[in-house]
Amino acid sequence: MTPQRESVMAAVTQLVHATPDQVADAVPGVDLTTVYRTLETLEHIGLLAHTHLGHGAPSYRLAADDHVHVVCHRCSSVIDAPAGLADQLSRQLAEERGFILDRSHFTVFGTCADCAAGSSHD
Amino acid sequence: MTPQRESVMAAVTQLVHATPDQVADAVPGVDLTTVYRTLETLEHIGLLAHTHLGHGAPSYRLAADDHVHVVCHRCSSVIDAPAGLADQLSRQLAEERGFILDRSHFTVFGTCADCAAGSSHD
DNA sequence: ATAGCTGCAAACGGTTTGCCTCACA
DNA sequence: TGTGAGGCAAACCGTTTGCAGCTAT
Asked: For residue B36, which residues of chain A lie inside 8 Å, CB to CB?
C-alpha cells in the first residue's frame, strides 16, 4: 500500500461512484496513468469493483458496497438499488444455465418514473 | 433509404450482432463515419437496437430480434436468452419504482457454466 | 435552390504502452 | 541490487465533428 494507493482508495470511498478521471481530479499530484493502474490493482485484489453506468467511462466503487445500479438513460440519474433486486434473475440463470451472475457488474437501463411521467422531451 | 443504409441493414441482419467496425468491414466502400451515422439513424427509427457486450464497442442488432444478453467475462461468450428472462425484474422495477426497464439494452455479466467448471485460469 | 446524405480529415475522450527513474526490500 | 511503483509522453481505439461535394427533390 503506497501513498498513491491510499489516496485512490480514500477518493473512491468519498466519491462513492467515481470514474478514473474524477478520481484523478480528487487526488492531485497522482498521475492519471497511476490512477488507472491503481484502480485495476485494487479491483484485482477485491477492494474495488466497477460497472458501466452509461456510454462513457466506467464507475468505480468499494467492492464491499454491494448494490446494483438502475440508470435512466433519459436524465442519466443513477439509482442504487439493493443487491437483492438481482436475486431472482441470479437464481434463474444459475438453475437454468449454471451461469453465475456477477452482481458487482450489474446495471440495468431504462426510463425513471420522473422521466416517464413528464414524457414530453425525447 | 439510401443504398448505404440498405447495405448497413443487410450487414447487421447477417451478422446478428455487430460493432460499427464489423459493419464497416462488411460494407466495403461505405465510410466508417457513414456507418456510425446510419446505425444511429436506423436505431432512432426503431429498426436497430444496440447494447454493450463488454468493454469495447457497442453491438448492434435488429430491434425486432427481442432477446437479452448474458455475457461471460471470462471467455467472452455471449448467450442470447429469451427476453422473458428480464420479466420478473422488469415487473419489480415498475411496481416498486415506476421504472420502465429497457430490455433492448439489457445485458448481464458473469461466469458461464463452462468457465465455472474448469475454473483453473484467472 | 434546398435539404439531406456521403466522404474525408481532423479532433476528441478515454485508455494503454514504453521507457526511464526512484524507493525500498 | 533487483523488483515493483510512479511519472511523463506518445500511441491507440472508438467515436464525433467540420466541411465540402453530391443527389434528388
From this structure: none
